[in-house]
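Hi Y.,

Following your request, here is the sequence exactly as I used it, all 407 residues.
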Amino acid sequence: MPNANVASRPKRPLWLVLAAAGTIVGLAMGLRQVMGLFMAPMTTELNIGREPFSLAMATANLVWGFASVPLGALSDKYGAGRTLAGGAICTAIGLYLMSVAQTSHELLISGVLLGIGIGGTGITALVGAVGRAAPPEKRPQALASLGMAAGIGGFLAFPYTHLIMQSVGWKTTLLIMAATIGLILPLATILAGKPAAASTTVRQQTLGEAFSEAMKLPSFWLLTVGFFVCGFHVAFYAVHLPAFVADQGLPPSVAVTALTCVGVANIIGTYLAGQSGKFTEKRVGLSFIYFMRCFAFLGLLFLPINAWTIVGISTLLGFFWLSTVPLTSALVATFFGPQWMSMLFGFVFLSHQLGSFTGLWLAGKLYDATHSYDTMWWISIGLALFAALLNWPIRERPVERLRVQTA
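Below is the corresponding structure, written out as C-alpha coordinates. Let me know if you'd prefer a different format.
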Protein backbone atom coordinates (compact mmCIF):
# COMPACT_ATOMS: atom_id res chain seq x y z
CA MET A 1 0.00 0.00 0.00
CA PRO A 2 1.41 3.43 -0.84
CA ASN A 3 2.84 5.32 2.08
CA ALA A 4 1.05 8.57 2.78
CA ASN A 5 3.98 9.89 4.83
CA VAL A 6 6.66 9.71 2.19
CA ALA A 7 8.22 12.93 1.03
CA SER A 8 6.98 14.45 -2.18
CA ARG A 9 8.46 12.72 -5.20
CA PRO A 10 9.80 14.35 -8.37
CA LYS A 11 7.01 15.67 -10.55
CA ARG A 12 5.79 13.00 -12.92
CA PRO A 13 5.04 13.75 -16.58
CA LEU A 14 1.45 14.74 -17.23
CA TRP A 15 0.86 11.83 -19.62
CA LEU A 16 1.79 9.30 -16.90
CA VAL A 17 -0.47 10.96 -14.32
CA LEU A 18 -3.36 11.01 -16.81
CA ALA A 19 -2.77 7.38 -17.85
CA ALA A 20 -2.77 6.10 -14.27
CA ALA A 21 -5.63 8.32 -13.10
CA GLY A 22 -7.72 7.56 -16.19
CA THR A 23 -7.30 3.80 -15.81
CA ILE A 24 -8.25 3.96 -12.13
CA VAL A 25 -11.32 6.09 -12.84
CA GLY A 26 -12.30 3.80 -15.71
CA LEU A 27 -12.16 0.76 -13.43
CA ALA A 28 -13.90 2.36 -10.46
CA MET A 29 -16.60 4.32 -12.28
CA GLY A 30 -17.17 1.65 -14.92
CA LEU A 31 -17.88 -1.09 -12.40
CA ARG A 32 -20.00 1.30 -10.34
CA GLN A 33 -22.22 2.14 -13.31
CA VAL A 34 -23.23 -1.48 -13.93
CA MET A 35 -24.91 -2.01 -10.56
CA GLY A 36 -28.34 -1.56 -12.15
CA LEU A 37 -27.83 -4.86 -13.99
CA PHE A 38 -28.06 -6.65 -10.63
CA MET A 39 -31.42 -5.16 -9.59
CA ALA A 40 -33.71 -7.64 -11.37
CA PRO A 41 -31.87 -10.90 -10.50
CA MET A 42 -31.09 -9.87 -6.91
CA THR A 43 -34.57 -8.63 -6.02
CA THR A 44 -36.12 -11.74 -7.59
CA GLU A 45 -33.85 -14.24 -5.84
CA LEU A 46 -33.93 -12.45 -2.47
CA ASN A 47 -37.69 -11.85 -2.82
CA ILE A 48 -37.51 -8.14 -1.98
CA GLY A 49 -38.99 -5.12 -3.78
CA ARG A 50 -37.06 -2.56 -5.76
CA GLU A 51 -37.03 -0.06 -2.91
CA PRO A 52 -34.55 -2.00 -0.67
CA PHE A 53 -32.11 -2.41 -3.57
CA SER A 54 -32.61 1.24 -4.52
CA LEU A 55 -32.00 2.25 -0.90
CA ALA A 56 -28.74 0.27 -0.77
CA MET A 57 -27.48 1.88 -3.97
CA ALA A 58 -28.72 5.28 -2.83
CA THR A 59 -26.87 4.82 0.46
CA ALA A 60 -23.71 3.93 -1.47
CA ASN A 61 -24.03 7.19 -3.40
CA LEU A 62 -24.72 9.19 -0.23
CA VAL A 63 -21.76 7.69 1.64
CA TRP A 64 -19.63 8.34 -1.45
CA GLY A 65 -20.59 12.00 -1.26
CA PHE A 66 -19.89 12.41 2.46
CA ALA A 67 -16.63 10.46 2.17
CA SER A 68 -15.43 12.60 -0.74
CA VAL A 69 -14.72 15.64 1.44
CA PRO A 70 -12.35 14.03 4.01
CA LEU A 71 -10.87 11.65 1.44
CA GLY A 72 -10.29 14.57 -0.91
CA ALA A 73 -8.58 16.49 1.89
CA LEU A 74 -6.31 13.49 2.57
CA SER A 75 -5.44 13.26 -1.12
CA ASP A 76 -4.65 16.98 -1.27
CA LYS A 77 -2.44 16.86 1.82
CA TYR A 78 -0.69 13.50 1.50
CA GLY A 79 -1.17 12.45 -2.11
CA ALA A 80 -3.73 10.14 -3.67
CA GLY A 81 -1.89 6.81 -3.27
CA ARG A 82 -3.15 5.60 0.10
CA THR A 83 -6.66 6.96 -0.52
CA LEU A 84 -6.85 5.00 -3.78
CA ALA A 85 -5.58 1.79 -2.22
CA GLY A 86 -7.96 1.99 0.73
CA GLY A 87 -10.86 2.74 -1.59
CA ALA A 88 -10.07 -0.26 -3.78
CA ILE A 89 -10.03 -2.57 -0.75
CA CYS A 90 -13.37 -1.21 0.55
CA THR A 91 -14.93 -1.66 -2.88
CA ALA A 92 -13.77 -5.27 -3.13
CA ILE A 93 -15.15 -6.08 0.35
CA GLY A 94 -18.45 -4.36 -0.49
CA LEU A 95 -18.84 -6.40 -3.67
CA TYR A 96 -18.11 -9.61 -1.77
CA LEU A 97 -20.68 -8.79 0.91
CA MET A 98 -23.26 -8.03 -1.77
CA SER A 99 -22.64 -11.43 -3.35
CA VAL A 100 -23.47 -13.22 -0.07
CA ALA A 101 -26.26 -10.87 1.13
CA GLN A 102 -29.52 -12.57 2.10
CA THR A 103 -31.50 -9.63 3.52
CA SER A 104 -32.05 -5.96 2.75
CA HIS A 105 -30.03 -5.09 5.89
CA GLU A 106 -26.97 -6.96 4.61
CA LEU A 107 -27.44 -5.32 1.24
CA LEU A 108 -27.38 -1.93 2.96
CA ILE A 109 -24.06 -2.71 4.67
CA SER A 110 -22.49 -3.59 1.34
CA GLY A 111 -23.78 -0.28 -0.02
CA VAL A 112 -21.98 1.63 2.74
CA LEU A 113 -18.65 -0.05 1.90
CA LEU A 114 -19.16 0.52 -1.83
CA GLY A 115 -19.75 4.19 -1.10
CA ILE A 116 -16.51 4.53 0.85
CA GLY A 117 -14.69 2.60 -1.86
CA ILE A 118 -15.82 4.73 -4.77
CA GLY A 119 -15.14 7.85 -2.69
CA GLY A 120 -11.51 6.78 -2.50
CA THR A 121 -11.10 5.66 -6.13
CA GLY A 122 -13.46 7.80 -8.22
CA ILE A 123 -13.13 11.16 -9.90
CA THR A 124 -13.33 13.14 -6.66
CA ALA A 125 -10.18 11.51 -5.30
CA LEU A 126 -8.21 12.33 -8.44
CA VAL A 127 -9.21 15.82 -9.62
CA GLY A 128 -6.63 17.35 -7.28
CA ALA A 129 -3.76 15.17 -8.52
CA VAL A 130 -4.66 15.84 -12.14
CA GLY A 131 -5.37 19.53 -11.55
CA ARG A 132 -1.99 20.06 -9.92
CA ALA A 133 -0.15 18.09 -12.60
CA ALA A 134 -1.63 20.12 -15.47
CA PRO A 135 -0.73 23.75 -16.20
CA PRO A 136 -3.72 26.15 -15.91
CA GLU A 137 -4.19 26.46 -19.67
CA LYS A 138 -4.47 22.65 -20.02
CA ARG A 139 -6.42 21.98 -16.82
CA PRO A 140 -9.97 21.80 -18.27
CA GLN A 141 -8.82 19.33 -20.94
CA ALA A 142 -6.89 17.25 -18.38
CA LEU A 143 -9.92 17.12 -16.10
CA ALA A 144 -12.11 16.23 -19.07
CA SER A 145 -9.93 13.17 -19.58
CA LEU A 146 -11.19 11.81 -16.24
CA GLY A 147 -14.79 12.07 -17.41
CA MET A 148 -13.82 10.46 -20.72
CA ALA A 149 -12.09 7.65 -18.83
CA ALA A 150 -15.27 7.10 -16.82
CA GLY A 151 -17.18 6.86 -20.11
CA ILE A 152 -14.70 4.36 -21.52
CA GLY A 153 -14.99 2.38 -18.29
CA GLY A 154 -18.76 2.26 -18.65
CA PHE A 155 -18.49 1.32 -22.32
CA LEU A 156 -16.34 -1.68 -21.43
CA ALA A 157 -17.94 -2.57 -18.10
CA PHE A 158 -21.48 -3.11 -19.37
CA PRO A 159 -20.73 -5.83 -21.94
CA TYR A 160 -18.03 -7.25 -19.64
CA THR A 161 -20.46 -7.61 -16.73
CA HIS A 162 -23.39 -8.72 -18.88
CA LEU A 163 -21.42 -11.53 -20.53
CA ILE A 164 -20.09 -12.80 -17.21
CA MET A 165 -23.57 -12.71 -15.66
CA GLN A 166 -24.94 -14.72 -18.58
CA SER A 167 -22.21 -17.32 -18.06
CA VAL A 168 -21.83 -17.70 -14.29
CA GLY A 169 -24.71 -15.81 -12.65
CA TRP A 170 -24.86 -12.60 -10.66
CA LYS A 171 -23.17 -13.85 -7.46
CA THR A 172 -19.99 -15.07 -9.12
CA THR A 173 -19.96 -11.95 -11.29
CA LEU A 174 -19.75 -9.78 -8.17
CA LEU A 175 -16.72 -11.79 -7.00
CA ILE A 176 -15.02 -11.37 -10.38
CA MET A 177 -15.71 -7.63 -10.19
CA ALA A 178 -14.08 -7.56 -6.74
CA ALA A 179 -10.95 -9.15 -8.21
CA THR A 180 -10.97 -6.74 -11.14
CA ILE A 181 -11.02 -3.69 -8.86
CA GLY A 182 -7.78 -4.99 -7.33
CA LEU A 183 -5.95 -3.75 -10.44
CA ILE A 184 -6.13 -0.28 -8.88
CA LEU A 185 -3.56 -1.21 -6.21
CA PRO A 186 -0.43 -1.19 -8.42
CA LEU A 187 -1.66 1.90 -10.28
CA ALA A 188 -2.02 3.76 -6.97
CA THR A 189 1.75 3.70 -6.48
CA ILE A 190 2.18 6.01 -9.49
CA LEU A 191 0.13 8.70 -7.76
CA ALA A 192 1.61 8.24 -4.27
CA GLY A 193 3.61 10.90 -2.44
CA LYS A 194 2.81 14.30 -0.97
CA PRO A 195 1.97 17.05 -3.47
CA ALA A 196 4.73 19.60 -3.90
CA ALA A 197 3.99 23.15 -2.77
CA ALA A 198 2.74 25.26 -5.64
CA SER A 199 5.04 28.17 -4.84
CA THR A 200 7.70 29.05 -2.31
CA THR A 201 6.68 32.73 -2.36
CA VAL A 202 2.94 32.29 -1.72
CA ARG A 203 1.69 31.22 1.70
CA GLN A 204 -0.23 27.98 1.47
CA GLN A 205 -3.80 27.91 2.80
CA THR A 206 -4.83 25.69 5.67
CA LEU A 207 -7.78 23.37 5.15
CA GLY A 208 -9.96 25.51 7.41
CA GLU A 209 -9.07 28.70 5.54
CA ALA A 210 -9.87 27.08 2.20
CA PHE A 211 -13.22 25.80 3.41
CA SER A 212 -14.17 29.14 4.98
CA GLU A 213 -13.29 31.00 1.80
CA ALA A 214 -15.41 28.67 -0.31
CA MET A 215 -18.44 29.00 1.97
CA LYS A 216 -18.47 32.78 1.44
CA LEU A 217 -18.53 32.67 -2.38
CA PRO A 218 -22.07 32.82 -3.86
CA SER A 219 -20.96 31.32 -7.20
CA PHE A 220 -19.59 28.27 -5.37
CA TRP A 221 -23.02 27.69 -3.83
CA LEU A 222 -24.78 28.07 -7.18
CA LEU A 223 -22.40 25.50 -8.66
CA THR A 224 -22.88 23.17 -5.70
CA VAL A 225 -26.68 23.25 -5.71
CA GLY A 226 -26.80 22.80 -9.49
CA PHE A 227 -24.63 19.68 -9.26
CA PHE A 228 -27.36 18.07 -7.12
CA VAL A 229 -29.42 17.76 -10.30
CA CYS A 230 -26.61 16.01 -12.18
CA GLY A 231 -26.44 13.33 -9.50
CA PHE A 232 -30.23 12.94 -9.43
CA HIS A 233 -30.35 12.32 -13.20
CA VAL A 234 -27.32 10.07 -13.60
CA ALA A 235 -27.89 7.72 -10.67
CA PHE A 236 -31.63 7.33 -11.26
CA TYR A 237 -31.25 6.63 -14.98
CA ALA A 238 -28.25 4.28 -14.73
CA VAL A 239 -29.70 2.10 -11.97
CA HIS A 240 -33.38 2.05 -12.95
CA LEU A 241 -33.10 1.83 -16.74
CA PRO A 242 -32.65 -1.98 -16.79
CA ALA A 243 -35.82 -2.36 -14.71
CA PHE A 244 -37.67 0.16 -16.92
CA VAL A 245 -36.65 -1.84 -20.00
CA ALA A 246 -37.90 -5.06 -18.40
CA ASP A 247 -41.22 -3.36 -17.64
CA GLN A 248 -41.63 -2.69 -21.37
CA GLY A 249 -41.24 -6.40 -22.13
CA LEU A 250 -37.86 -5.89 -23.79
CA PRO A 251 -34.84 -8.20 -23.30
CA PRO A 252 -32.01 -7.23 -20.90
CA SER A 253 -29.66 -6.75 -23.87
CA VAL A 254 -31.56 -3.55 -24.74
CA ALA A 255 -30.59 -1.96 -21.42
CA VAL A 256 -26.99 -3.14 -21.81
CA THR A 257 -26.83 -1.67 -25.32
CA ALA A 258 -28.46 1.58 -24.19
CA LEU A 259 -26.14 2.10 -21.24
CA THR A 260 -23.14 1.16 -23.38
CA CYS A 261 -24.24 3.89 -25.82
CA VAL A 262 -24.41 6.28 -22.86
CA GLY A 263 -20.77 5.47 -22.19
CA VAL A 264 -19.70 5.98 -25.80
CA ALA A 265 -21.60 9.26 -26.19
CA ASN A 266 -20.25 10.39 -22.83
CA ILE A 267 -16.68 10.12 -24.12
CA ILE A 268 -17.50 12.49 -26.98
CA GLY A 269 -19.62 14.83 -24.89
CA THR A 270 -17.06 15.12 -22.11
CA TYR A 271 -14.27 15.81 -24.60
CA LEU A 272 -16.32 18.56 -26.24
CA ALA A 273 -17.19 20.03 -22.84
CA GLY A 274 -13.51 20.19 -21.93
CA GLN A 275 -12.71 21.92 -25.22
CA SER A 276 -15.65 24.32 -24.89
CA GLY A 277 -13.83 26.19 -22.13
CA LYS A 278 -11.58 27.67 -24.81
CA PHE A 279 -14.51 29.37 -26.55
CA THR A 280 -17.18 30.16 -23.97
CA GLU A 281 -17.62 30.53 -20.24
CA LYS A 282 -17.97 27.31 -18.30
CA ARG A 283 -21.24 28.46 -16.71
CA VAL A 284 -22.76 28.76 -20.19
CA GLY A 285 -21.68 25.23 -21.02
CA LEU A 286 -23.21 23.90 -17.81
CA SER A 287 -26.54 25.65 -18.43
CA PHE A 288 -26.63 24.23 -21.95
CA ILE A 289 -25.90 20.68 -20.73
CA TYR A 290 -28.66 20.73 -18.12
CA PHE A 291 -31.17 22.25 -20.55
CA MET A 292 -30.49 19.62 -23.21
CA ARG A 293 -31.23 16.80 -20.77
CA CYS A 294 -34.90 17.90 -20.82
CA PHE A 295 -35.33 16.53 -24.33
CA ALA A 296 -34.18 13.04 -23.36
CA PHE A 297 -36.72 12.78 -20.55
CA LEU A 298 -39.47 14.30 -22.71
CA GLY A 299 -38.77 11.56 -25.25
CA LEU A 300 -39.41 8.87 -22.66
CA LEU A 301 -42.81 10.42 -21.97
CA PHE A 302 -44.07 11.13 -25.47
CA LEU A 303 -42.28 8.83 -27.92
CA PRO A 304 -43.32 5.19 -28.50
CA ILE A 305 -41.11 3.06 -26.27
CA ASN A 306 -39.20 0.35 -28.11
CA ALA A 307 -35.60 -0.79 -28.33
CA TRP A 308 -34.61 1.86 -30.89
CA THR A 309 -36.19 4.67 -28.89
CA ILE A 310 -34.45 3.68 -25.66
CA VAL A 311 -31.06 3.34 -27.33
CA GLY A 312 -31.50 6.66 -29.17
CA ILE A 313 -32.59 8.57 -26.06
CA SER A 314 -29.78 7.02 -24.03
CA THR A 315 -27.26 8.10 -26.65
CA LEU A 316 -28.61 11.66 -26.55
CA LEU A 317 -28.43 11.70 -22.76
CA GLY A 318 -24.91 10.28 -22.90
CA PHE A 319 -23.61 13.42 -24.63
CA PHE A 320 -24.66 15.36 -21.51
CA TRP A 321 -23.83 12.67 -18.92
CA LEU A 322 -20.49 13.40 -17.24
CA SER A 323 -19.76 16.42 -19.43
CA THR A 324 -20.62 18.47 -16.33
CA VAL A 325 -17.52 17.16 -14.52
CA PRO A 326 -14.70 18.99 -16.38
CA LEU A 327 -16.61 22.27 -16.33
CA THR A 328 -17.62 21.97 -12.67
CA SER A 329 -14.18 20.90 -11.43
CA ALA A 330 -12.45 23.51 -13.59
CA LEU A 331 -14.66 26.21 -12.08
CA VAL A 332 -13.57 25.08 -8.60
CA ALA A 333 -9.94 25.47 -9.69
CA THR A 334 -10.73 28.86 -11.27
CA PHE A 335 -12.33 30.09 -8.06
CA PHE A 336 -9.77 28.84 -5.54
CA GLY A 337 -6.68 27.41 -7.27
CA PRO A 338 -5.53 23.76 -7.18
CA GLN A 339 -4.15 23.40 -3.64
CA TRP A 340 -7.34 22.06 -1.99
CA MET A 341 -9.08 21.12 -5.21
CA SER A 342 -10.02 17.53 -4.32
CA MET A 343 -11.49 18.60 -0.98
CA LEU A 344 -13.49 21.52 -2.42
CA PHE A 345 -14.68 19.54 -5.41
CA GLY A 346 -15.54 16.80 -2.93
CA PHE A 347 -17.89 19.25 -1.20
CA VAL A 348 -19.54 20.09 -4.53
CA PHE A 349 -19.71 16.38 -5.24
CA LEU A 350 -21.44 15.78 -1.91
CA SER A 351 -24.34 17.77 -3.36
CA HIS A 352 -24.16 15.55 -6.46
CA GLN A 353 -24.43 12.47 -4.29
CA LEU A 354 -27.30 13.89 -2.25
CA GLY A 355 -29.00 14.17 -5.62
CA SER A 356 -28.02 10.57 -6.42
CA PHE A 357 -29.48 9.34 -3.15
CA THR A 358 -32.69 11.29 -3.71
CA GLY A 359 -33.09 10.13 -7.30
CA LEU A 360 -32.42 6.47 -6.54
CA TRP A 361 -34.60 6.28 -3.43
CA LEU A 362 -37.44 8.38 -4.84
CA ALA A 363 -37.56 6.34 -8.05
CA GLY A 364 -37.91 3.09 -6.10
CA LYS A 365 -40.48 4.62 -3.76
CA LEU A 366 -42.61 6.09 -6.54
CA TYR A 367 -42.38 2.95 -8.65
CA ASP A 368 -43.53 0.70 -5.82
CA ALA A 369 -46.43 3.10 -5.24
CA THR A 370 -47.48 3.71 -8.87
CA HIS A 371 -45.78 0.91 -10.90
CA SER A 372 -44.62 3.62 -13.32
CA TYR A 373 -41.62 5.92 -13.85
CA ASP A 374 -43.66 8.72 -15.47
CA THR A 375 -43.57 10.93 -12.38
CA MET A 376 -39.78 10.59 -12.23
CA TRP A 377 -39.43 11.67 -15.85
CA TRP A 378 -41.42 14.85 -15.11
CA ILE A 379 -39.41 15.56 -11.97
CA SER A 380 -36.19 15.11 -13.97
CA ILE A 381 -37.36 17.65 -16.56
CA GLY A 382 -38.20 20.23 -13.90
CA LEU A 383 -34.84 19.78 -12.17
CA ALA A 384 -32.96 20.09 -15.48
CA LEU A 385 -34.57 23.49 -16.11
CA PHE A 386 -33.84 24.53 -12.53
CA ALA A 387 -30.13 23.65 -12.84
CA ALA A 388 -29.82 25.44 -16.19
CA LEU A 389 -31.17 28.64 -14.63
CA LEU A 390 -29.07 28.21 -11.49
CA ASN A 391 -25.72 28.01 -13.29
CA TRP A 392 -26.32 31.01 -15.54
CA PRO A 393 -25.49 33.79 -13.00
CA ILE A 394 -22.20 32.19 -11.83
CA ARG A 395 -19.31 34.70 -11.90
CA GLU A 396 -16.35 32.91 -13.43
CA ARG A 397 -13.33 34.55 -11.80
CA PRO A 398 -10.79 33.80 -9.05
CA VAL A 399 -11.43 34.84 -5.46
CA GLU A 400 -9.84 38.07 -4.28
CA ARG A 401 -6.93 36.24 -2.65
CA LEU A 402 -5.78 34.82 -5.99
CA ARG A 403 -6.36 38.11 -7.82
CA VAL A 404 -4.17 39.92 -5.28
CA GLN A 405 -1.44 37.26 -5.55
CA THR A 406 -1.50 37.49 -9.34
CA ALA A 407 -1.23 41.27 -9.21
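Residues 1-9 have pLDDT under 50 and may be disordered.

Thanks again,
Q.
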